[in-house]
Amino acid sequence: MTSMDYSKAAEWKIIERTFNAERLGKCESIMCQGNGYLGLRNAADEFNAGEQRNLFVAGTFNKFDENEVTELPNAADVTRLNIHLDGTLFNLQYGRTIEYSRELCLRNGETVRTVVWESPNGKQYRLEFRRFVSMERKHLIAQKLSVTPLSGDAEVMIIGGINGQMNNTGSQHFSEGEKRLYDGRVMQYTQTTGQSKIDFFLNTAFSFRLNDAQLDQKGFIVMDRRLIQQEFDLHIPAGQTLTMEKLSNVYTNRDRECEGKSFAQLQEYSLGNLKEACAVGYDTLMQESADAWNALVWNNVPVTIDSENPMDQLAIRFAQYHLYVMTPAHDNRMNVGAKGLSGEAYKGHTFWDTEMFILPYFIYTAPEVARSLEEYRWLGLTGAHKKAASNDYEGAQFPWEAAWIDDGEVTPVWGAADIITGLPTKIWSGFIEQHITADVAFGAWQYYTVTGDQDFMDKFGYELILDTAKFWASRLEDGEDGLLHINDVVGPDEYKEHVDDNAFTNYMAAWNIRKAMEYAAMLKAEKPEIYARLAEKLDLGRVEEQWAQKLPLIYLPQPREDGVIPQDKTYLGLKQIDLTKYKNQQNIGSIYRDYNQHQISNMQVSKQADIMIMFMLLENQFDLDVKRANWNYYEPRTLHDSSLSLSTHTILANDMGNREMAYDLFQRAAAIDMGPNMKSSDAGIHAASIAGIWQSTVFGFGGVRMLEGRLRINPNLPEQWKELSFFIHWKGQKIAVQITKEQLKLTNLTATASVELTVNGAGYIFADTLTVTL
Amino acid sequence: MTSMDYSKAAEWKIIERTFNAERLGKCESIMCQGNGYLGLRNAADEFNAGEQRNLFVAGTFNKFDENEVTELPNAADVTRLNIHLDGTLFNLQYGRTIEYSRELCLRNGETVRTVVWESPNGKQYRLEFRRFVSMERKHLIAQKLSVTPLSGDAEVMIIGGINGQMNNTGSQHFSEGEKRLYDGRVMQYTQTTGQSKIDFFLNTAFSFRLNDAQLDQKGFIVMDRRLIQQEFDLHIPAGQTLTMEKLSNVYTNRDRECEGKSFAQLQEYSLGNLKEACAVGYDTLMQESADAWNALVWNNVPVTIDSENPMDQLAIRFAQYHLYVMTPAHDNRMNVGAKGLSGEAYKGHTFWDTEMFILPYFIYTAPEVARSLEEYRWLGLTGAHKKAASNDYEGAQFPWEAAWIDDGEVTPVWGAADIITGLPTKIWSGFIEQHITADVAFGAWQYYTVTGDQDFMDKFGYELILDTAKFWASRLEDGEDGLLHINDVVGPDEYKEHVDDNAFTNYMAAWNIRKAMEYAAMLKAEKPEIYARLAEKLDLGRVEEQWAQKLPLIYLPQPREDGVIPQDKTYLGLKQIDLTKYKNQQNIGSIYRDYNQHQISNMQVSKQADIMIMFMLLENQFDLDVKRANWNYYEPRTLHDSSLSLSTHTILANDMGNREMAYDLFQRAAAIDMGPNMKSSDAGIHAASIAGIWQSTVFGFGGVRMLEGRLRINPNLPEQWKELSFFIHWKGQKIAVQITKEQLKLTNLTATASVELTVNGAGYIFADTLTVTL
Q1: Which of A318, A431, A599, B455 has CA atoms 20 to 30 A from the CA of A248?
Q2: How many CB pairs (< 8 A) connect A and B?
Q3: Does A21 contact B416 at a Cβ distance shorter than 8 Å?
Q4: Residue A563 contacts residue A628 (beta carbons within 8 Å)
Q5: How far apart are CA A726 and CA A304, in angstroms?
């Protein structure tokens, strides 16, 4: 099994040292490039069997037909090159690979692949492939290839262009549009999504140099259905180097900057922008993009870990890199997909992963991005009303999976095979994984409480919290015990379907109603205009009565004598099996090889944190003994088959004071994408898990938490760390945090207001700096 | 460049001796398997980059969207296997291929691929892949794989099933249907075409043996979008052989035998038929299919060539094999595609290739198949009326490209790139390549005249000839010279667009009207009921007047003083260029690399036979000197860039007595698919050219021709041939024809009527046998 090389962590580099055709997915995903507007999977320039070549433009959802759900379509490819070296198609699966390395520099976002290859005909060549997606020009994809023949002269044929034959596991989202070669130089291809009617405009152009001399190389134009290419035939004298640059861009008429422009204008506009980039050239464009990365992240909100293990520093940079690649910060009609923009899995849909994992990162480091993600939820109210109404509920029931703002529920209905019945398994999450609605409310509250963004709250936040609470009031069911229950749900632990009184769901629903009641009362008293507007919109009078009446009656599962809280009504009574075989990060989901969903639902086995995540969100509602008892009960029964599980456990382990276990879990969480399992990232990076690396660091070891509206910092560095420093935003103040084992130092870089916080139980207020001895 | 091995011609075998990943298309096409109901391109079981894997069911046309034309969709694949040998994915592009051969036996239709492969891990394995499409059970595809480890024990993992992610150069024609595993054994997948709403039902099942012992091997079921597969993990002890059988079938609700059955019934029906086949097993099914091939072709209408060059015998068998693979003889709503069922090119559409090339084969060897192809044209009258009306013409204007019977014109509008403008080239054939309408009439007349099938004529044939003639009458244009012209057309030579008075078109239009007038007069006199029916339907009275008035005025280009007939109004005056660079079978279409269509239209260069094919069809209208003069003028200007060109030239060369040239052209014609150009068949076999091999043999060297309604045989064997024998049907009589250089021997095997014919100018009538000394 190939493994990644992280020895150049100090140089911010992720390196692959050997090529393995059966392990293509790993680097395609973890070296995925992008800027939130577009995501480009890092498939090699040359085609490989088993590759997954993807180009996604955030928010361009389309549905193939009525049998399928909407998804991010795989746009036309601009990266593939067929490179013939002295008549042989270049491919590392044959011939002899003499040197190989492929690296992503997290700092500047460039990938470099260096190969010395001996063709089956015995001739050797050095090839260097460079590629980046510009952080400065969000539509730009740049490639650079150098070919140096090592065995005399070489005849090189390069074929490439724009390939609209791409699809999503067989579903073709696009109608073919127009193909055109401008001035013998720039190829343009347009394509339009079938149902959502989004026009895509792609442009690409080649240029060549021999050593330092520009070549005026003419290409032969080839068109086929959904395909426009040029073929270039070049001669490289021995010892010289041919350099190719291929610059491409993509625009859509859904882009904010393209609004109001006609199809023809966008053809012209996108073409003009590509020509402009061509005039600048790869190297300068690369520098421009690196500067943008520095300004955005590395010189702005870096996280520094001085650890015995350089992987830790690399992991947090890996996380920050991908968080910016995946997040469509530019458009509040879009949110983050569960695989970011790095793979087709989960179809680009947004889950609770945003609120629980990704949103906190941006709340604390880039509040304006967090606000955009929150506005997306407010814009999603239309869909949430649709969903509630279709289920005979009131208020806003958020979709388990969300795509375009007004789509409503987009969770697919059928999934993997049931090994017993031989039929596809029904996916129940879209129907009954209902805690998402409280999660959204919690996210809005967290955003507001940390940032203090009152404007957001007035316009969007109160409404989100009240409207979701309205849903819960209508959702509660009368029990024979005189209490109110939430029956037939899926909780965070998706190995349990159709459970009653999932603890997480019930507690969060109660939290949501309680928070709504507090805000309704406050608004009535302090912001009567907002109250009046929302009262009319949401029928608040009637709904408030329901809240007051129902909140005290919600059944909240209590700890047993041994401190264990029943995850749901039946869990603790289910049969137990030996889970050793399945409790291993290499065997994600392997329990499905032996049992079907129905059988798994009837065993004491959990996919992921359930009670644990409740402890994290509602930290103060449970004491440490209860947390420990539940950890001891549930962790051994938890397979961590969801990538959302480990980082939560890391934080909890830290909260319980178990640094060693926390550090071990942190490393395992980081390994979900970066680790030696070369298949785990095939379908794309794990967005929530990646954000979890940051959470484990800052919330876990850094001990940062917003609790009941207050900032708390309880640092607890692992043995292996000497120092941890990072930046957080708190109520408009940007604070530098430096933690050693001995000391916590805070510096308010904004210093327009003083900051109040608790450190290890003691309260502090500071204006400029604060140093606390630990 | 890899080449094919035909040294086992005596064993009916086409063999590939070396694997070359850049030359996959050749064997995929020329070893294509099928039975007229379905066509399966011979892509290897294991996936290769650059492969083209196709499964077509005849007549199941669908249009992706309104921007595209209807085409034969690429159905779900059942053939692909991922074979992991001791953990390494089997693929010949890496590791070491120690032995390799791949052969198609034309006699029984089975392909056998034998490989000894050394994995990159150093272990060796012998694999034998067998496959056939049953000629007996038209829905059945059978695969058999044997694996023998040569370096100790082996762990083998085989993954396969049904893959509905296939598409046609990016266009996905299907909605996903249902996926199901029955009894842990049979996988079923359904899919439905998007616009034509044809339901496909596919079933597949694996079975395994170790040496001779049946294994009850359980597979692990895997489903993804459009995909159902099973994974089998097997252990092979050293020295033993694992044998896998995978049997699959495909049905559609368009199948005649499926009419009236519900979706659920067809799931059941197709499943039941697969289970039945599984009970029979590969070897017996194979024998059954071989028997069907023998009964249909090899024991029925074989062609035997005793030649110095065994390739000649192989070539004619190759032709007969593919004619039965490609022809949907089972359903008169279907016709033959220009690539048969062997590739996506030309989208499964039917061209004049049928009437000019393929139909004659069936007229003379299997009249019932020819009748089905003719009935397709009659059923196509709806579409032909649609086309005429849309162009403001009367009668039946046949589409240049035809798909489903009532589709009308389906020629795509945009083609390859124009190297000057950088835009796609407009394809004018669908608009103005109008001779097809006369070709269809000619085909009906030829069918009738050769077979004497009066029932066909009464029901369909007269109408076809009258209705097409009605079109021509409305099509003719008044010229300033007082004559009638046909302006702005494409003739058979497609390198000339927008020409006036293409000789072929004008002569054939005149022929069509003349034949219609003869039949109208005859019907009026002899079959008044038919006349009355058609008169009402076609408004014959008025139309007949037009015919009588217009026929004498049609401008028919006459030979110049030097005997050369102008191919069209301007051809002889166009500029001439040196064509040496382009006149080479390896460089098909290469003139487009230097000139665009407009430029080519304005040079004296022809793609294919134009005047020549007129000489063949209207043989008696032109004397030998004129033919020779035109050959000498046009042949040097003809690039033979159409695969329809060489066989016509072969026949003409023979007619002109040039046996040597004829034989040379025959071999070149056979080489279009079988020859050393490993790329020429990538897009599929050349259906017309393949039928042309038979025509060159029987019409060319055999000298068989229907002329003015009479059978004529002027044999003229090439130097290299000792004997040629074949079978023809003539007016209900099946005749064995044996030709040596000295003698022609005819045997009437039916002997229900005597047969009249001309041999080298002398008339004969015979009842049982006839021997003519040559």
Answers
A1: A318
A2: 133
A3: no
A4: yes
A5: 6
| Partner-chain residue, chosen from A49, A166, A183, that has the shortest CB–CB distance to B49 | A49
Q: Are A590 and A625 spatial neighbours (Cβ–Cβ below 8 Å)?
A: no
Q: Taking CB atoms and an 8 Å limit, are B417 and A175 in contact across chains?
A: no
Contacting residues for A223 by C-beta, under 8 A, at least 6 apart? A179, A229, B415, B416, B417, B424
How many angstroms separate the CA of residue B677 from the nearest CA in chain A? 15
pLDDT band at A1 (very low <50, low <70, confident <90, very high): very low
SS3 A253: coil
What is the rounded CA–CA span in Å between residue B371 and residue B356? 15
Contacts of B228 in chain A (CB under 8 A): 417
How far apart (Å, rounded) are the C-alpha atoms in residues B216 and B211?
14
Q: Cα–Cα distance between B385 and B408 in angstroms, integer?
A: 8
Q: Reading across the β-sheet that carries A710-713, which strands appear in turn?
A: A704-707, A710-713, A755-759, A762-766
Which chain B residues contact residue A180 at CB under 8 A? 422-423
Please state the φ and ψ torsions of residue B451, each to the nearest 5 degrees. -90, -25
pLDDT digits (tens, 9 = 90+) for B649-676: 999 999 888 999 999 999 999 999 998 8
Residue with tokens 């000394």: B773
β-strand pairing of A424-426 with A477-478: unpaired
Contacts of B91 in chain A (CB under 8 A): 49, 93
A417 interfaces chain B, CB cutoff of 8 Å: yes
Give yes or no for a contact between B692 and B648, defined as CB atoms under 8 angstroms apart.
Answer: yes
Establish if A184 touches chain B: CB-CB under 8 angstroms: yes
Q: Are strands A755-759 and A710-713 parallel, antiparallel or unpaired?
A: parallel
Residue A379 backbone phi and psi in degrees, to 5: -65, -25
CB contact under 8 A, A422 and B222: no
User: b/e string for B182-191 if b means 16 or more Cβ within 10 A?
Assistant: beebbbbbbb
Q: pLDDT of B214-244, one tens digit each?
A: 999 999 999 999 999 999 999 999 999 999 9
- Interface test mutation site (partner A, options B91, B169, B679, max chain A beta carbons within 10 A): B169
**CB-closest option in B21, B64, B223 to A424:** B223
Q: B494 an active-site residue?
A: yes
Above 0.90 for ipTM, yes or no? yes
CB spacing of A170 vs B91 below 8 angstroms: no
Provide the shortest C-alpha distance from residue A210 to chain B (in Å).
25
Phi, psi of B588 (to 5 degrees): -50, 125
Q: Give the pair of three-digit tokens for residue B292.
A: 């069907």
Tokens 């015919």 identify what position? B547
Cross-chain residue pair B417–A228, CB shorter than 8 Å: yes
Cβ contact (<8 Å) for B180 and A21?
A: no
Question: Is the CB of B228 inside 8 Å of chain A's CB atoms?
Answer: yes
**Contact status, residue B395 vs residue B566, Cβ threshold 8 Å:** no
Q: How many CB atoms lie within 10 A of CB A724?
A: 26
Residues facing A710 on adjacent strands: A707
B415 min Cα distance to partner chain A (Å): 7
pLDDT in tens, A105-118: 999 999 999 999 99
CA dist., res. A103 & res. A109, Å (int): 10
**What's the pLDDT at B1?**
44
Give the Cα separation of B42 and B111 in Å (integer): 9
Average pLDDT over residues A171-180: 96
CA distance B54 to A602: 44
What confidence tens digit (pLDDT) does each residue in A17-68 have? Answer: 999 888 999 999 999 999 999 999 999 999 998 999 999 999 999 999 999 9
Per CB-CB distance under 8 Å, the chain A contacts of B424 are 179, 223
**Can you spell out the DSSP letters for A463-524?**
HHHHHHHHHHHHH-EE-TTSSEE--SB--S-TT--SBSS-HHHHHHHHHHHHHHHHHHHHHH
In A, which residues are within 8 Å of B415 by CB distance?
223
